[in-house]
Structure formats: C-alpha cells, structure tokens
Amino acid sequence: MKTDFKIIGFDADDTLWVNEPYYQETEKIFCELLSDIQTEEIISKELFKTEMQNLDLYGYGVKGFVLSMIETALQISNNKIEKPVIDKIISLGKDLINKPVVLLEGIQEIVEKLTKSGYKLIIATKGDLLDQERKLKKSNIEKYFHHVEIMSDKKELNYQKLLSHLDIASKDFLMIGNSLKSDIIPVLNLGGYGVHIPYHTIWTHEAIKKTDNLNNFWEIELISEIQRILDL
To answer: What does the alpha-carbon distance between residue 160 and residue 84 come to, in Å, rounded to a whole number?
Structure first.
C-alpha cells in the first residue's frame, strides 16, 4: 500500500468545515420569502436552474449564489418583486458569509498529526477567493497548509495545472474530499490517489453515483481513518 505521498490535498467545504447545511438553510429562508408566489419545490428548482446557467459567469461561492437568488426572485415574480425582498436576499448573503467556521470532527487532530509525520498538506477548493480565505483564517488551521489553491473548477485540467505548479507527479498526490465528482474522480483519472469522506448533505450539482471500478481509492466515514490508510 502506497504511503509515501509527497503532497496530501484537502478539499475545504464539508471536508474541513461545515458549509452545505448553511446554504440549505439560506435557501429554505429564500423559499419562505417567496412562498406567496410559488411553492418551495418550484422555487428551489428554478434557483438551481439559474445557478447552473450562471456558473460560467459567476463561478462557485456565496456571491454567485446571492445573484442567482435575486435573478430567480425576479423571474418567478415577473419582475414584480419588491425592494424589501431584494434587501432581505442581500442580507441573507451577508449572513451566509459571516457564518461561524465549524471544523468537522477530527480535522484539527489529523492535520496536526499529518504535519508532524512529515506530510506536506495543501488545500484545493472551489469557491469565492475572499470567502474561502476568510474561512481559512477563522478556522485556525491555516498554519498546517503549505499551499492554498482556490480553483475556478475541479476538472482534470484544473488538477493537472495544480500538479504542474506543485511540481509533482500525479502518483505522488493524494486528494481527500467529500465530493466524488470534484475531489476524487478527476484526480484518479490523472493517476493520483483519492480518499472519499461522504458528508451527510451534498449540493445537487456535486452528487454522482459511485462506481465499483475505482483504483487507488478509499472511502472512509471519519477523517481519523486516514491514519490506517497511511499506516500512521
């Protein structure tokens, strides 16, 4: 079993700290704001559709989410939404940015142990640059990471550029994350290694079905199990 990875990469949202539950909570309040216009199911469906249409323009993160909420509110109300509702949506976005950073169970201990064991750690995550930098600072674990990469997307080309920047071969890279689609599959396709830690909630855009023919791959329930994989 390979354990001599030169670099171990961590996704951030819902791998290091809580994220998606905050978005779901915000979306629920957004739907309640517009409940006199449409049902929650239809509002959520239209919001997701708008988000997907806007990804290439806004990328991932809170700001794109807020703009998509405003656009959705205008669409389903035939541009009749009142200013106080728009103000509330903007306020929801600011509240989302200011949510506390809650580390997931065992993260503090494992990044400290991996660092002491000689592994070089990085963060490779999507999202808004300022927001992710803010969360990392609040997390108090920034000191354990050699490099932080805020990626516009997480496809094979993006990871290949990252590996080239880090000057390592894919076989020397282990990626840890909660999304098979973004964190694991692209790295495996490049010849790297992946550890999947499913989170109890996941954004619909990131949800894919796991196949049985994955190589260089482990799935664990708790981050502490990485010690078994690495023989720590």
So the answer is: 46
In a domain, 218, yes or no: yes
What's the whole-number mean pLDDT along residues 201-220? 68
Domain boundary among 97, 129, 164: 97
Structure-block tokens of residue 2: 């390979």
d(CA 129, CA 179): 20
pLDDT for 127 equals 84
4-53: pLDDT as tens digits:
899 999 999 999 999 999 999 999 999 999 999 999 999 999 999 999 99
Q: Do 131 and 172 share a structural domain? A: yes
Alpha-carbon gap, residue 29 to 156, rounded angstroms: 35
Which residue do the tokens 């990044």 mark?
111
The pair of structure tokens assigned to 38 is 């449409």
2 domain-assigned: no
- In residues, how long is the chain? 232
Q: How many domains does the chain have?
A: 2
211 within domain boundaries: yes
Q: What does the alpha-carbon distance between residue 137 and residue 150 come to, in Å, rounded to a whole number? A: 14
Per DSSP, helices labelled H in the chain are 20-33, 40-58, 62-76, 83-97, 107-116, 129-139, 156-166, 185-189, 226-229
Domain boundary, last residue among 80, 97, 114: 97
Query: What CATH number did the domain enclosing 167 receive?
Result: 3.40.50.1000
User: Quick one: 209 and 123 in the same domain?
Assistant: yes
Axis-axis angle for helices 40-58, 62-76 (nearest 10)? 130
